[in-house]
Amino acid sequence: MSITQTPLPGPDAAAIGIAAFVVVYAKDLWSLAQHFQTMAHEGMHAITGSMLGFRVKTVELYQNGDGKTTYYNLLVGGGGVFTGFVGYLGPSAFGLAAAGLIHLGFIIAVLWLAVTFLWVLLLALLRSFRYARTFGYLSVPVTMALFFVLIYYGSITLQIVLAYGITWVLLLSGVRRVVQRWTGAGDAGILKDQTHLPRWFWAVLWLGGTFSALCLGWRLLVARA
Question: What are the start-end ranges of the H helices in 128-155?
Fold first, then answer.
C-alpha cells in the first residue's frame, strides 16, 4: 500500500461533509456520534494537562455523552486555565489536523492516528479504574475495534471515505457542542471561577475557534486548489 493517497475531488469531499452534517445534527445519530466528540474533548484535556506537567487522575466518559477529566496537581494559573480552555477546541483541532493530513495525501494515516489516540485514551481510562467506573471502558474499545476491522478488511475506497467522514464529524461536532452548551458548559463555569471572566467570554472564544477550524478544514478538503 502506498504511503500517500490521492485526495478526493472537491464535490465528493463536500458530499461526505453533508453526510457528516446529517450525522452530527440529526438527533438519533448525534446520540451516537457525540461519544466520539467527547473522546476528543476529554482527550485534549488529558493530553494538554500532561504536557504542562499536570498528572491526570481520572478520565471519565459517561453514557449520556458527557465526560470529565481530573488531575492530581492542577494549579490555578495560566497552565490550569489553558488546560481547562482547550477541551472544547479539541475535536476541531484534531479535525483540522486530519484535514491537513488529507490535503497532503496522508489519508489512511488519519485512521491509524485515530486508533493511536484511542489507545492512549484507553490507557488513561485504565489508570482511572480504581477511582471511577465509566462508559468509556465500553465505548473506546468498541470504537477501536470498529476502526481495526475497517482498516484491515475494508477497501481503500472505504477507508478514504471513513477518513474524510471522521474529519468532518470532528470539525462539525466541535461547533455543534459549543452552540449546544454555550454558557451552560461546565468548563465555562470552571474558567469563570478561575479568572472571574464571564461564561459568555469563553463561549465566544470557543465558537470563534471551532468555526474558524471548520472554515479552514473546508478549504483544505474541498477548495484544495
Answer: 136-153
